[in-house]
Write a structure and sequence with these properties.
By secondary structure, the protein is of the alpha/beta class. It has eleven helices and eight strands.
Length: 280
């Protein structure tokens, strides 16, 4: 704590260091299988394996997820919800406003993906409508101390990290930032741009998602694997994030991996711990 209310105070030689490894959470799609169908079962599994929390897809199960997270002393980092920027279409549904109310005061994030049938992926012609909608959501979210992280997704209107960054800058709200999704970045970009892109994104970077992946992979089977697999240099990626000053949460993307959730999550956590030791 720095206190300066009793007259002029000067500070020098202030050093800021990370208090520990980045918080590490899992997407709910990584925790779900035939043995772990309910939020209660999924949250209990994540706690057992040492994860810091979960990302939820929202909807009718969100209240139960929030309840189980609080009961187990974990964190609900993000809630994955979408908006539509096509004229004449509802921009979002009741599940979004409900999510803001459920997350009130938690400093959690709405993970917003953006879709459109009118505008092709990355088309800046949709910027005006997108900024209008996101600004309105950001205002509602700010009242509840909720943040908004733009989620870039292959094939969606916000498809690349650059798209998310472009929109976040135009919205220009303190509670609006961007996500760096490893698998979606690898699907549309060149790995050689990693360092410059992370550095450009840092002022707006709220959250990162990772998973094992193959360099040069062209489909989700090669681009979304458990963290202990794949040829992509994850140690270099995490070091680049650390060197850029990122200390925020990192989530494990488990979409489509299949198999046993416990095994996948345990192998991923073991790999995370090894990688964390390497990047200290």
């Amino acid at each position: 704590m720095l206190q300066g209310d009793h007259g002029p105070v000067a500070y020098r030689n202030i050093r800021i260091e990370s208090a520990g490894p980045n918080p590490f959470f899992a997407f709910d799609n990584a925790a779900a299988d035939d043995k772990h169908k309910t939020p209660k079962e999924q949250v209990a599994l994540l706690k057992e394996l040492g994860y810091d929390g979960i990302s939820s897809r929202g909807g009718k199960e969100l209240p139960e997820v929030a309840k189980e997270i609080e009961k187990n002393g974990l964190t609900l980092f993000t809630v994955y919800l979408g908006i539509n920027i096509d004229p004449g279409q509802p921009a979002y549904g009741k599940e979004l406003t409900d999510a803001i109310e459920i997350l009130k005061g938690s400093n959690a994030m709405l993970w917003l993906y953006i879709q459109s049938k009118k505008y092709k992926p990355s088309d800046p012609a949709g910027d005006g409508r997108a900024v209008e909608i996101i600004t309105k959501i950001a205002e509602m979210a700010a009242e509840s101390k909720v943040r908004v992280a733009l989620y870039h997704h292959y094939g969606f209107w916000i498809e690349s990290v650059e798209d998310a960054l472009r929109i976040a800058k135009q919205v220009n709200r303190r509670n609006v930032g961007v996500t760096f999704n490893l698998c979606h970045w690898l699907r549309v970009d060149d790995e050689k741009n990693m360092k410059s892109l992370i550095e450009a994104t840092m002022p707006y970077l709220f959250v990162v998602s990772i998973n094992g992946a193959d360099s040069g992979g062209k489909d989700w089977k090669t681009l979304i694997q458990t963290l202990d697999r794949g040829t992509f240099d994850m140690r270099a990626f995490l070091k680049t994030l650390s060197d850029a000053g990122y200390t925020g949460p990192i989530g494990f993307q488990g979409y489509g991996i299949g198999g046993d959730a416990r095994d996948n999550l345990k192998r991923t956590m073991d790999a995370w711990r090894r990688l964390n030791n390497l990047t200290k």
